[in-house]
Design brief:
574 residues, alpha+beta, nine-stranded antiparallel sheet, 36% helix, 21% strand, elongated, signal, Putative heparinase superfamily protein, Chondroitin_lyas, Hepar_II_III_C
Length: 574
């Protein structure tokens, strides 16, 4: 009860802070404050920073014909400017106003693409440049737009006449002053960090006094030290955020070098930590493990970032600050969540996934978490974030962490995670020829009175993953048979895997031209049920799950095993 009260107090404190932020933002966007964003217009862009994000000239052609494939949705404008039409999809609008799609015009490399880019920027300035409100001026979107306009200024300004050139630079200057005034009070998370990155880009790319660059550099360093953990993870515990922030930090480091300026040590250190962290979360097929907001992976995007990784050797196996463990032997990779929930402030995408794991063999995934449908309907997000959507145990079909379902709260904060494990203990048990760990969390203690402990061991050159799930009351007292001790352990199977039963009634996980694995359990007969895999590149897909269901008062400890019985392209290995 005390923990619940503490979580509720923390939640309403955040609501009050966010309400105050939005009030101040409205005031600062009003006529009383707006004069502060006027000032000297820069004479020119000194340098266009590089952009590492993938570009497709075909998308530039689609945009020319009025078709905007943004944020997973295609909108046809019918000859109108996209800034004139009302599209109810918030994600599409944010992407439109963020202008990252300018990279596709740059990739096209034609005068037509440059003219179209210039026309669209001119439309934005005319329709939104002097009216600070709505999605277009959300601080996170403004930060993206500043970075994109600077990175692709050479395309936008190609062949531009002087009036547009001045209007462009004047608008950039106003956006920078606005973002500088808002950055201090932005809520914690990647948007605040990106705002500091955008201001550092601006201080390097435009004529500015040395004091402006020193201030931007100092503020960036402080934010990096706060948000990037010692093992390279982000405070949100979302692997995708590591990828997204690296895509901005690497070009920023290059821009410091191009301008003969010394980057802050915090920037160098953050990149040096984050590149190995990105490899830590990566399966052998190049995709990232589906934890805490991670959905489908665009493999080429990761490959582009990792070209800048000079780290030699295999990825690290232990990420204690981020709260993850990795086992990797003989082409088998296991990645597990062994951490506390992230701070409430940055938990909008966090999952109730404590002690969940994923297993891949070669380039094929076998046991997965459901992940999220990045561009799908918002109403499915709670399902994807629940414990039942992960390869771990639930008690009485309840998640190990709670989410806010208050409409008033969600309108201000999204849907933060407001309860969950308070203590997670984890210990590596590596030995010669064996990698493993034991972890335990107390997320179910307040409601049901017992702990969940999981041990995983990968051995036999990656051919055997042995698991043990144990349920106990604090102090090792016996679990009572009170109707509140029903346990379900789930193993979500990737939709590309065929789940069969062999002549010994064992469950066989097989795929074409891939390894074959057999699932067995000692104390409980496994069952097969339907499931949903949300993180497919084409959207949600039907899948199946292996389920172990029992009462903890009758079976307090379950042993199970995944055994690789044949390796693709090699003789059967028994």
């Amino acid at each position: 009860m005390a923990l619940a009260a503490s979580s509720t107090t923390r939640l309403w404190t955040l609501v009050a802070k966010e309400f105050w932020r939005k009030t101040r933002r409205r005031l600062r966007a009003g006529p009383v404050y707006r004069w502060r964003y006027s000032g000297r217009t820069p004479e020119r862009v000194l340098i266009a920073p590089p952009d590492l994000r993938l570009a497709d000239p075909q998308i530039a052609l689609e945009i020319y014909y009025g078709r905007y494939p943004l944020s997973g949705h295609l909108v046809e404008t019918g000859g109108k400017s996209p800034f004139q039409i009302n599209v109810p999809n918030h994600g599409w609008q944010k992407t439109l106003h963020g202008f990252r799609w300018l990279r596709h015009m740059r990739a096209a490399g034609t005068e037509l693409a440059a003219a179209n880019a210039r026309a669209l920027v001119s439309d934005w300035i005319a329709m939104h440049g002097s009216h600070i409100s709505g999605v277009a001026w959300e601080p996170g979107t403004t930060a993206k737009r500043i970075i994109a306009w600077l990175q692709h200024s050479s395309v936008v300004l190609q062949g531009a006449e002087f009036p547009f050139y001045r209007a462009f630079l004047k608008s950039v200057a106003v956006q920078i002053r606005y973002l500088r005034s808002m950055a201090r009070e932005m809520p914690d998370g990647k948007d605040k960090l990106r705002a500091r990155i955008a201001l550092a880009f601006a201080a390097l790319s435009l004529p500015a006094p040395a004091s402006a660059l020193r201030g931007a550099t100092r503020n960036l360093a402080e934010e990096l030290d706060r948000q990037i953990l010692a093992d390279g993870g982000h405070i949100s515990r979302n692997p995708m955020v590591v990828l997204e922030i690296l895509a901005d930090l690497l070009p920023l480091r290059q821009t410091y070098a191009n301008q003969a300026e010394t980057p802050p040590q915090a920037l160098i250190g953050a990149i040096d930590r984050m590149l190995p962290a990105l490899r830590f979360f990566r399966h052998q097929d190049g995709s990232l493990a589906r934890f805490n907001g991670m959905g489908a992976t665009i493999h080429d995007r990761i490959a582009t970032i990792l070209r800048h990784d000079d780290t030699a050797g295999a990825p690290l196996l232990h990420a204690p600050h981020s709260g993850y463990e990795r086992l990797s032997m003989g082409g088998t990779t296991v990645i597990a969540d062994t951490g506390l929930p992230p701070p409430v402030d940055v938990s909008n995408a966090a999952h109730a996934s404590c002690l969940a794991f994923e297993l891949s063999s070669g380039r094929q995934h076998y046991i997965v978490n459901a992940g999220i449908d990045t561009y799908g309907a918002a109403e499915f997000r709670p399902l994807a974030r629940a414990t039942a959507a992960h390869s771990t145990a639930t008690i009485n079909d309840t998640s190990s962490a709670r989410f806010s379902h208050s409409l008033r709260v969600n309108d201000l904060l999204g849907s933060p995670l407001i309860g969950g494990p308070q203590h997670v203990q984890c210990k590596r048990t590596d030995q010669k020829g064996v990698q493993g760990f034991i972890a335990r969390h107390d997320g179910y203690v307040p409601r049901f009175g017992f702990l969940h402990e999981r041990e995983l061991k990968l051995s036999s050159n990656g051919n055997v993953l042995a698991g043990r799930d144990r349920f106990q009351r604090p102090g090792n007292a016996a679990i009572r048979n009170n109707g509140r001790d029903f346990v379900t352990i789930r193993f979500h199977v990737h939709p590309d895997i065929n789940l069969l039963q062999d002549e010994h009634d064992r469950l066989v996980l097989a795929a074409d031209q891939a390894d074959t694995w057999v699932f067995t359990a000692a104390e409980v007969v496994p069952e097969v049920e339907e499931s949903i895999y949300f993180a497919g590149l084409g959207g949600p897909r039907r899948s199946r799950q292996i389920v172990l269901a029992f009462k903890a008062s009758e079976v307090a400890e379950v042993h199970w095993q995944l055994t690789r019985t044949s390796i693709a392209g090699y003789p059967e290995n028994n």
